[in-house]
Design goal:
- The chain is α+β, with helices and mostly antiparallel strands.
- It contains 14 helices and 15 strands.
- It has helices at residues 2-20, 23-41, 66-81, 111-124, 160-174, 199-204, 209-219, 246-250, 326-343, 357-387, 389-412, 419-449, 454-480, 490-506; strands at residues 54-60, 87-95, 98-105, 135-141, 149-155, 180-186, 191-197, 223-230, 233-239, 253-257, 260-263, 268-274, 282-283, 311-320, 349-356.
- Strands 5, 6, 13, 14 and 15 form a 5-stranded antiparallel sheet that branches. Strands 2-3-1-4 form a 4-stranded antiparallel sheet, covered by helices on one side.
- Strand 8 and strand 9 (233-239) form a beta hairpin.
- Helix 2 packs across helix 11 (389-412), helix 11 (389-412) runs antiparallel to helix 12 (419-449) and helix 11 (389-412) packs across helix 14 (490-506).
């Protein structure tokens, strides 16, 4: 009884402070500002990020067959890397002259520590490297390496080689977008100086393939040769220069025969142009497709593009930095691409966004926010119908106050706004309004009894229902806490719900 009286005493003091002052208004304003700010600056994603450290180890063993690579490299390295603490799976692929070993750690393992342990394991066993291995590369793989937006260039007039040159320039522009991560190109043939050798002409002049390789490698070098100090000035000297054109390559002197220089163009033909195709990338449209930039009616294709016909295409894929907002990065990429198209793209080259993770994330989050607002309106309307509009409005104020602080804590703890976060808020909506309903209904009952003045009646009404409200709130919080201990992939996926529902109830 003494503990209960003491509890009611300090609760009564808090109630009187809010009833007699402006603390309620200040609390509501602060919560609204905090909620709106958190809603605007918190990164938006479709799903929660799941931390699964993964890394690929590329091993080069020139001249070895796939069977030899598997026996000498892949199998040994698999057993070695599986000894690392925290490793869950080890996979390998063996090819002629190379192998790729993939190491996957347990969900939730620290990225940096996992990769350091992997690198140390490889370096500490360097004495066991079989003969023939020329090198290896440890390359981490992160979820943020996955592109969030793809821009595809296509044309009915230009080849994939020309589109590739334009895409390379666009790639450089997009690397300057704030918080943009890895950018990559897919499709198109890159520029290449190709040397087609003639065995007959080489044999007639006594020139081998190794002679040509040595001369070309030696000519395509630029090195610092030293410096010259003169009259209090330092002049840096460079030796050599890179080969810049096909003409420079074909005029290389390969050998001297009968006191006469033999040029590369005498034993080979040199061509500056597209490389040999390794992949083919095409794009086609249906009848209702439309361009992203043409000022048409929004339903027709660009000029020169016909439906159901494929055209050469090159795609620039852009990822985002870890922890950045996918919506903002995608918006920046769209603006920079539109500026590039206006300044650089020639007539007849069109662009289209073929993937936009930022827009889809924003649309889904906005859709869930709209559904949350609809749920709040329905709850308020139901309360206004059953209790009265004044009581319903008071209970409705608990929702933005609670959700505002909940979103702020969600942001401060590093969580994003995703469909699991918003589902947790929708789920907690009914639980959040349950406590104010009990309070307001009991206060309304005391007002109807007219035994005490309004302020003492409020204090006594809240004190009457305080113990069951606290116990019910703690029961809900405790029931969701075990979700923090879920292991595997579902643990990080359900973490926003395990956080937001208890925090909303606590608020």
């Amino acid at each position: 009884m003494n503990a209960g009286s003491a509890s009611r005493g300090w609760v009564s003091g808090i109630l009187e402070a809010f009833l007699k002052g402006n603390l309620s208004v200040i609390l509501i304003v602060i919560s609204l500002i905090a909620g709106i700010g958190a809603l605007l600056i918190t990164p938006r994603e479709e799903d929660p990020q799941i931390v699964v450290p993964v890394a690929d180890v590329f091993i080069h063993m020139p001249g070895a067959s796939a069977a030899e690579v598997e026996r000498q490299v892949s199998s040994r390295l698999e057993k070695l890397l599986y000894q690392i603490d925290g490793v869950k799976h080890v996979y390998s692929m063996s090819f002629p002259s190379m192998a790729v070993v993939t190491v996957r750690f347990h969900v939730g393992e620290d990225r940096e520590r996992s990769w350091v342990k992997l690198y140390n394991k490889v370096r500490s066993n360097i004495d066991q490297v079989p003969p023939g291995v020329t090198g290896w590369v440890v390359k981490p793989v992160e979820i943020d390496d996955v592109p969030i937006i793809n821009i595809t260039l296509y044309s009915s007039q230009y080849s994939d080689y020309a589109l590739r040159r334009l895409a390379e320039e666009l790639q450089l522009r997009l690397q300057g977008v704030r918080d943009a991560g890895i950018t990559s190109l897919v499709g198109g043939r890159p520029r290449q100086i190709t040397v087609h050798l003639s065995p007959q002409r080489m044999a007639a002049r006594g020139i081998s393939l190794k002679d040509i390789e040595r001369v070309v490698r030696g000519a395509d070098v630029n090195q610092r040769a030293g410096h010259l100090v003169r009259e209090n000035q330092e002049i840096r000297l460079d030796a050599g220069r890179f080969l810049m054109s096909a003409q420079e390559v074909e005029n290389l002197v390969i050998s001297v025969r009968d006191n006469r220089p033999v040029f590369l163009k005498e034993v080979a033909s040199v061509r500056d142009g597209p490389a040999e195709p390794e992949t083919y990338t095409r794009i086609a449209f249906g009848q209702r497709a439309f361009s992203s930039i043409d000022p048409a009616d929004g339903k027709s294709l660009p000029k020169g593009i016909e439906p159901f016909k494929d055209y050469p295409a090159v795609t620039v894929a852009v990822a985002k930095r870890k922890g950045s907002n996918a919506v903002w990065v995608a918006e920046g990429v769209r603006k920079e691409t539109a500026r590039f198209a206006k300044e650089v793209l020639p007539q007849g080259v069109h662009w289209r966004i073929t993937r936009d993770y930022g827009k889809s994330s924003d649309d889904k989050v906005n859709e869930l926010i709209k559904e949350l607002m609809v749920a709040i309106v329905i709850v308020v309307a139901l309360l206004a119908y059953t209790l009265g509009w004044k009581e319903g409005l008071i209970i409705a104020l608990a929702v933005p106050v609670t959700f505002g602080f909940t979103l702020l804590i969600n942001y401060l703890l590093g969580y994003s706004i995703n469909r699991v976060t918003l589902f947790a808020l929708i789920l907690s909506l009914g639980l959040v309004v349950d406590d104010p309903i009990v309070d307001v209904e009991n206060i309304h009952r005391h007002f109807e009894m007219r035994i005490e003045p309004p302020q003492p009646a409020v204090v006594h009404a809240v004190n009457e229902v305080l113990p069951p409200i606290i116990i019910a709130t703690l029961a809900v919080i405790i029931s969701f806490l075990p979700m923090f201990f879920i292991t595997g992939m579902m643990g990080p996926y359900m973490a926003p719900m395990a956080l937001n529902v208890p925090v909303a109830m606590l608020m």
